[in-house]
Amino acid sequence: MIKVLGIKIIDRIKEAGLTQGILSRHASLITTRLGFHEVTDEVCSREAYIILHLNGDPADTDKLATELKTLEGIEIREMIFTSEKETLNVGSVKNSVEILGILVERSQSVIQSVQKLLTAYGCNIHTRLGVNEIFFGEPAGLIILELKGDEKQRLLLEKDLKALNHVLVRTMVFS
Predict the structure, then answer these.
(1) Which CATH number does the domain housing residue 149 bear?
(2) Is 174 helix (H, G, I), strand (E, B) or coil?
(3) Which of 17, 102, 118, 147 sits CB 3.0–4.6 Å from 143 for a disulfide?
(4) How far is 19 from 9, CA to CA, in rounded Å?
(5) What is the arithmetic mean of pLDDT over 102-116?
């Protein structure tokens, strides 16, 4: 099993310290961490997102999620990869943040098929993170995408990825 935790911090300045305290206590479970928020010359958003790739005993990762859920001002979403296929996402809410997790078997043909799709839908990929993983004893790649743009295109990307053999797809949406 592979677990990815998504955290939306509603007020980054107020809640980041408390969130960081919990993450620091559970640092041994965090394999990869990606944090992002909107920054331009005119604005620095108070809203922020953290994506955690977790590794460890499921009871310990559940404890981390439970501790985070006690905080006010944050939302938690989870992606769990098992050998089972997930149903197609029914859509997202306008102005939402959609995170797509893709677990790819390490075979050249599968990797090429996934890369071809990601290139074709590249205008909908705002952020991309790739990490090496072991899934049921075999090498795999975990790709985490933050999707933006046209909702129909995002749903088509998800559908096309889910149609591939040896690829598992999970989603989390923050509204």
Answers:
(1) 3.30.70.1150
(2) strand
(3) 102
(4) 9
(5) 92
Q: 98 and 54: one domain?
A: no
- 45 and 129 part of one domain: no
As for how many domains the chain has, the answer is 2
Owning domain of residue 140: 82-174
156, 131: one domain:
yes
Give the separation between CA 90 and CA 88, rounded to whole angstroms: 6
Angle, in degrees to the nearest 10, between helices 108-120 and 151-162? 170
Q: What pLDDT digit, counting tens, does each position of 40-60 carry?
A: 788 777 888 999 999 989 999
CA neighbor of 171 nearest in space, from 158, 157, 156, 153: 158
Taking 70 as the threshold, does the pLDDT of residue 116 lie above it? yes
The domain boundary, picked from 50, 79, 108, lies at: 79
Residue 66 and residue 110 share a domain: no
pLDDT band at 91 (very low <50, low <70, confident <90, very high): low
What is the strand order of the sheet 74-81 is part of?
30-36, 48-54, 2-9, 74-81
* Mean pLDDT rounded to a whole number for the chain: 88
User: Which SS3 state, helix, strand or coil, does residue 22 take?
Assistant: helix
